Amino acid sequence: MTPPRSATIAPEATEIPLDLASEILRLKESLHAVILAHYYQESEIQDLADFVGDSLELSRKAASTDADVIVFAGVHFMAETAKILSPDKTVLLPDLAAGCSLAEGCPAPIFQRFREEHPDHVVISYINCSADVKALSDIICTSSNAEKIIRQIPPGQPIIFAPDRNLGAYLVRKTGRDMLLWQGSCIVHETFSERKLLELRSLYPAAELIAHPECEEVVLRQAGFIGSTSALLRHVQEHSATEFIIATEAGIIHQMQKACPGKLFIPAPPEESCACNQCPYMKLNTMEKLYRCMKRRSPEITLDPDLIRKARAPIRRMLEMS
Ligand code: 13P
Ligand code: SF4
């Protein structure tokens, strides 16, 4: 995989203060900003954010905040969703190249043709897609609410599910609905090795394997619990086990350790000897870039008002149905 390249290293680099965290908090006050962070951000960013959450919780926060500026420590589709839900606010993303393999694997013009080939289908799209693909969808979902939304679609109504084939296949098994799946995937959640997982489980026989539904079926089949990042975090707090193998992006382990300091969290091993269980897009955001984007009020997410209107309807539908 070619790692994503930063889009924002400007030649006249802003001077970086020594106490970055204090400077970021000072800028936050002066901008009347809120900092929203996803669980896959580096620990320092999570600790500084006003709110850390999964995709659904972050969308809700973006829709309800009274701040003037939303600083989104996450990836591009998340910041776009914030702009769609709060179009009058300034939305900043520390690095515009913070994309997502799912969003990139579903180009809007090709998706539009696919949709037109199946005019009788309702289109449910995972929130990990571009604003253009959202505008071509009937309902958006996240891994927290996808099952609930699919169960509300009348039986017999054909469904297209895009863009994640692994989450889609999991939902087909869970709900019994035969959905037409777009063949996209997450490079991070497809990295886990079935063989290495079996070896790890024999080293930690008491550990429970928990997994995100973006993982492949061979991994999900072994899991004792499957859920969104927030559901995984809740599970380790509520479950009596003291050892867990975590099959999702390793950033979530920071919050797990904070919530349960006495428990052991072991990241699921990737196939190669690499750090592939860390999302290279999420990790493009750094404390330095967070500081710089707040200082310069750039890069900013801007979207065409007509696109905002079209993409907002399926997101609003999701919020109503979940
Ligand atoms: P959730 O945090 O909504 O479970 O999403 C996981 C993910 O891969 C985000 O890109
Ligand atoms: Fe996209 Fe996967 Fe990274 Fe999430 S972890 S942003 S789904 S590439």
Overview of the molecule:
With 322 residues, the chain is α/β, with parallel strands linked by helices. It folds into three domains: 11-98 and 281-303, Rossmann fold (3-Layer(aba) Sandwich); 102-185, NadA-like (Rossmann fold); 194-267, NadA-like (Rossmann fold, 3-Layer(aba) Sandwich), CATH 3.40.50. It is built from 15 helices and twelve strands. Strands 2-1-3-4 form a four-stranded parallel beta sheet, sandwiched between helices. Strands 6-5-7-8 form a four-stranded parallel beta sheet. Strands 10-9-11-12 form a four-stranded parallel beta sheet, with helices on one face. α3 runs parallel beside α4 (76-85) and α4 (76-85) crosses α15 (305-321). The longest helix has 17 residues, at 305-321. Iron/sulfur cluster is lined by residues 40, 75, 100-102, 128, 186-189, 249, 279, 281-282.
Mean pLDDT: 95
How would you describe the oligomerization state of the chains in this entry?
A: single chain
Classified in CATH, the superfamily of the largest domain is NadA-like
Q: Report the principal-axis shape.
A: globular
How many helices does DSSP assign? 15
CATH architectural label of the largest domain: 3-Layer(aba) Sandwich
What key attributes describe this structure?
single chain, 322 residues, alpha/beta, Rossmann fold, 3 domains, four-stranded parallel β-sheet, 12 strands, 41% helix, binds 1,3-dihydroxyacetonephosphate, binds iron/sulfur cluster
